[in-house]
């Protein structure tokens, strides 16, 4: 499970991000993982700049860097489990 942080401020707990398609749907395109020094992992739209996506203030504050568009905050264990499959 993940937390979907929408650019408009809506936060959806327990978002089902169990496969690539669900992650892509959440962020609106191809995904890219962003890992922060605080050991948090965010899933973002890798074309966010090219698409002119708006900044996501909540996710950016959590990450300590600018994140654009709708963003997933993903548990590290979930990514490791996905890598093993």
Percent strand:
25-35%
- Count the beta strands: 5
Percentage of residues assigned to helices? 25-40%
- Shape summary: globular
Q: What structural class do helix, strand and pairing data support?
A: alpha+beta
Number of DSSP helical runs: 3
Outline the biggest β-sheet: 5 strands, antiparallel
- Spatial order of strands in the largest sheet: 2-1-5-4-3
Radius of gyration: 12 Å
Low-confidence stretches: none
Give a description of the structure.
The protein is α+β, with helices and mostly antiparallel strands. Helix content is 28%, strand content 27%. The chain has a five-stranded antiparallel β-sheet. The radius of gyration is 12 Å and the shape is globular. The two termini are 16 Å apart. The mean pLDDT is 91.
Notable features of this structure?
alpha+beta, 28% helix
Structure in a nutshell:
With 85 residues, this protein is α+β, with helices and mostly antiparallel strands.
Architecture blueprint of SSEs:
Elements: E1 2-5, E2 11-15, H1 20-27, E3 31-35, E4 41-45, H2 57-63, E5 71-74, H3 76-84
Antiparallel strand pairs: 1-2, 1-5, 3-4, 4-5
């Amino acid at each position: 499970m993940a937390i979907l942080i929408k650019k408009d401020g809506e936060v959806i707990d327990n978002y089902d991000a169990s496969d690539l398609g669900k992650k892509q749907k959440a962020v609106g395109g191809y995904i890219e993982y962003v890992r922060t020094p605080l050991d948090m992992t965010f899933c973002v739209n890798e074309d966010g700049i090219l698409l002119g996506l708006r900044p996501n203030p909540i996710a950016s504050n959590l990450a300590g860097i600018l994140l654009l568009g709708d963003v997933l905050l993903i548990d590290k264990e979930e990514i490791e489990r996905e890598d093993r499959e």
